[in-house]
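Dear colleague,

Thank you for sharing your sequence with our group. We've completed the structure prediction you requested, and as agreed, I am returning the results in plain text so they can be pasted directly into your records. Please verify that the sequence below matches your submission; if there's any discrepancy, let me know and we will rerun it promptly.
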Amino acid sequence: MLKAGVTAFEVYLEQALQEVLNGYRVTIDGQQCSLRLASRGFESPPWGTLVKAHAVLKSEVDTADVKWARDLRHLLTHQDGELRTQDALEKFRDADAERGREEIDRAYVGGKVHLGAERVVRTLDALASAVCAADPAVWSLVWGSGRGDDCRVLAELEQAKLIEAAAP
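Please find the predicted structure tokens below.
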């Protein structure tokens, strides 16, 4: 659930930015092209592009809680939840979840990270908070009073090489 939640968070941030870009066209060599986030040859843009593009909208989506959640998702996905180092153990150990457990049931280097329902909910709530902070800027640019600010936003996104033209 946590891995899927972090992925859904990233997908939402990408879709929100794309919603901002959907109404614009540029003409290149006589061809009308739509705008999309720069994806560097992949289907979706890299995390850094999402962070920088949301920063142009004055939204911070790479908070300490989000970084921690993304790091945990990496551990769960690419290391099968194994705490391979002392640093990983210190970063991801949940003392509250271990309270009252036998020594054998506590996290250790080489063991698995303990999640527990409370930790998962806390982590997903942190992601939801980042979305709630980003939503007003996106909403304003797409449907609200921020439409007049769209030239600045598009210029900043283009100057930072965060958007590209897409063939029709």
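Summary note from our side: The helical segments are 2-21, 47-56, 64-78, 86-92, 95-98, 116-142, 150-159.

Kind regards,
the structure core
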